[in-house]
Structures are given as structure tokens and as C-alpha cells.
């Protein structure tokens, strides 16, 4: 218990919640939100950038359906940057998924073990579902 009877989480011991070894503690940690939801976030960033860009361009062209004042130039710039970041993020995600799927189609255990570092790295960069697929494939081949 902390001050004024409030339970402080820093005092919780790993053994109290069933985690006895450091490996269990690290294994129970989830992936960052930006990794777990990369496709949705990147597409939302792309769409928001497109909206900013269109609103800024319409303001600069004199079509005043929405009065943004002198912010039209900024909206165009910010929208273009947001669209570029969203597009690059989504493209890199899709490329990593494609590489992972290609490496997971391997039928030979020897070839799979040879490329295991690449597959593990891609699984680490992608959402948790891909790590689960890798664990099943490793179990099928009897690889640790």
C-alpha cells in the first residue's frame, strides 16, 4: 500500500501474478501500439493527410467552403508530409508481410533454419499474430 492507502503498482512483485522467471516477464510484454496496429494507423495518417491537403489546396485556390485563413499553406505542407509518412509506413508494412509470408512458405527444414534469423526479425517487426505463426512453424519443424 502506498500513501493514503492507495495501492502502488511499483510494489507488485512478479511472483504475485504468476511470473517467476525473467523470461516469463519479458514474454508477457505486448508489442507497442504502433506495431500492433500499423496498417490502421498508417492508413488513417494517409487519409488525414489527404484531407488536410485538399482543404489547404481549396483554400489556396480561393474556393472558400471552409475558412482557414492564412493556414492554407500550412495545411498543404502538413497534409503532404502526413500523406508521405502514411504511404511509406503502409508500404513498408506490406513489404515486410510479403517477405514474411514468402519465407514461411518454405517446405524444407534446412532452408527454413538457414533463413530463421530473417524470419524472426520480420516477426519481431510485425504484429503478434506473425510471431504466433512463426512459433507454430518452428514447432512443426522441431526448431527451438
Quick rundown:
By secondary structure, the chain is an all-alpha fold. The chain has seven helices and no strands. Mean pLDDT is 84; it is low at 22-28.
Account of the protein in words:
- This protein is mostly helical and 144 residues long.
- The protein has one domain.
- 67% of the residues lie in helices and 0% in strands.
- The protein has seven helices and no strands.
- The longest helix is centred in the middle third of the chain and has 33 residues.
- The radius of gyration is 23 Å and the shape is rod-shaped.
- The two termini are 41 Å apart.
- 12% of the residues are buried.
- About 5% of the residues have low confidence.
What portion of the residues fall into strands of 2 or more residues? under 5%
Overall 3D form: rod-shaped
Order of helices and strands: HHHHHHH
Low-confidence stretches: 22-28
Report the total helices.
Answer: 7
Tally of distinct domains: 1
Largest sheet: none
End-to-end distance, in Å?
41 Å
Number of strands: 0
Specify Rg, calculated over alpha carbons.
23 Å
The SS-based structural class is mainly alpha
Approximate helicity band: 55-70%
Rounded average pLDDT: 84
Note the topology:
Layout: H1 22-27, H2 33-36, H3 38-60, H4 72-104, H5 109-114, H6 116-125, H7 128-141
Helix pairs in contact: 3-4, 4-6, 6-7
Give a quick set of tags describing it.
144 residues, mainly alpha
